[in-house]
Amino acid sequence: MMWMQQPPALAIVSFHSGEGKTTLLEGIIRELTGKGYRVCAIKHSAHNEVQDASKDTWKYREAGAAASALLQSSGYLEVCSQGADLHTAINVVSCFNPDIVICEGFKDSGLPKIAIVEPSDLGPGSRLRGVVALVLKGDVAPVGGVDCLPFDPSVVAAFIESRFLESRRRATMIDRYGRRILGIRMSLTQRCNLNCVYCHHEGEGSPSGEMYTDEILRILRVARDLGMRRVKFTGGEPLLRKDLGGIIAYSYALGFEDVGVTTNGQLLRERALELYEAGLRRLNLSVPSVDPNVYRSITGGELRNVVDGLESARRLGIHVKINTVVMRGINDSSIGNIIEFARTRSSQLQLIELEDLHLDKGFFEKYHFDLTQTEETISRASDSVVERGEMNRRRVYLVKGLPIEIVRPVSNPSFCAGCTRIRITSDGKIKPCLMRDDLLFDLLGGIRSGLTDDQLKDLFMSAVSAREPFYR
Ligand code: SAM
């Protein structure tokens, strides 16, 4: 078990049963999750009526809690840990990276009526401390330093938000151009088992080594604390990293809502099951051509491996989006074949315009293919068009059931205006813009020289405030 930084924890306790603690807690969970917070809840049960108590933890989850746990007075914790105390219970639900943990207590538990715990207060075996509020239906006199609140979920939720959660809100990163940073794109390695002629290496020139697993996990935790919701792992070839499954599983445990991988698929057949079991449900697969000879001349690899990998992933229920960088004179005349390939494998297709980055001199001028015309043709052939709510409302065209997206970043100010992600290079630098080599923030250097989490967050903040659209 990995111990993490503790979120604030709050307890609601009454002296008698039937005073409405569960109902109140459900209401608070609804209010806070409605405002976008992740809430976890613990039932701290006086009796050992497991069935009744389990009903309550189920109610918490129905109200929107990301996770709930049942802790009995005997010290039995339903989330599979014996001899547990409140500290352990809070640690377990903290794996789901909540913004706050709320505990429903019992009269002899020793908990104050409503209490907040700061991370530093929690040593093993410690109890909740620092009484700040009292919420009871009956008339029970508040004890020292207690705020009295009415029995009203929205009032209590507002109190909790202003007292304990405001700083978490502020932590969400927004750059000077009003762009919220919602995701990270992290290169896990620059090693690759292919040698694609068009590869931009995610904008990395000459990386100085790779990050260790624990360094990657720490960066993910800090990023998640700063409000990031999505993470995409790229490279090099991310499937060359043996720890990829563990990294994916940890990302989900941290509460990332969307975890993706971009791969060339050469190793996918062997690793699909492991990635699926780690929680992966979608990936991007690079397929620059569906002709084996053309594929080999572009990448140096075998198309057969990609097709096998795609089939393995699909059979498991992993959603596959095919990425095709379109190049003049290489694959622009076979877009129709790629569309059919994607359709028969019930995937999704993304046609990407070639970007001029770390390419051999003259390569871009020779092979860049403007996708404007292609988008018009696909638009005319489409049965319907869906606008994504993000990525600057990028359009998804449905052509005979196949969703197709066209990615046109080159000289496109609206592409930059819709950018909500920040990059981490394989050697642990924050890279605010794919196109710029001069703007790097050395996160890994900071980790290795002993910076605290707060100092790493400051580094993220500096990187975000340095962000500016490449094309305006
Ligand atoms: N090895 C993995 C793969 O092939 O997908 C991940 C690394 S690759 C650099 C990540 C993505 O960048 C792929 O979707 C690829 O199509 C895209 N890409 C690479 N070079 C590009 C370029 N010059 N212009 C546009 N997209 C590019």
Structure annotation, total helices: 15
Task: Tell me the major beta sheet.
Answer: 12 strands, mixed
Bound molecules: S-adenosylmethionine
Low-confidence stretches: 1-5, 111-147
Indicate the CATH class of the largest domain. Alpha Beta
Number of domains: 2
Class computed from helices, strands and strand pairing: alpha/beta
What value does the average pLDDT take? 80
**CATH architecture heading of the largest domain:** Alpha-Beta Barrel
Biggest β-sheet: strands ordered side by side in the sheet: 14-15-16-13-12-11-10-9-8-17-18-19
Name the CATH superfamily classification of the largest domain. Aldolase class I
Q: What best-fitting shape do the alpha-carbon axes yield?
A: globular
Residues in β-strands, percent: 15-25%
Number of strands: 19
Termini gap:
47 Å
- Structural Rg: 25 Å
What name does CATH use for the topology of the largest domain?
TIM Barrel
Helix content: 25-40%
Structure overview:
Helix content is 34%, strand content 19%. By secondary structure, the protein is an alpha/beta fold. It folds into two domains: 162 residues, 3-Layer(aba) Sandwich (Rossmann fold); 293 residues, TIM Barrel, CATH 3.20.20.70. The strands form two sheets. Strands 14-15-16-13-12-11-10-9-8-17-18-19 form a twelve-stranded mixed sheet. Strands 3-2-4-1-5-6-7 form a seven-stranded mixed sheet, with helices on both faces. Strand 14 and strand 15 form a beta hairpin. Helix 6 runs parallel beside helix 7 and helix 7 runs parallel beside helix 9. The chain is globular. The protein starts with 8 loop residues before the first strand and ends in a 7-residue tail after the last helix. Bound molecules: S-adenosylmethionine.
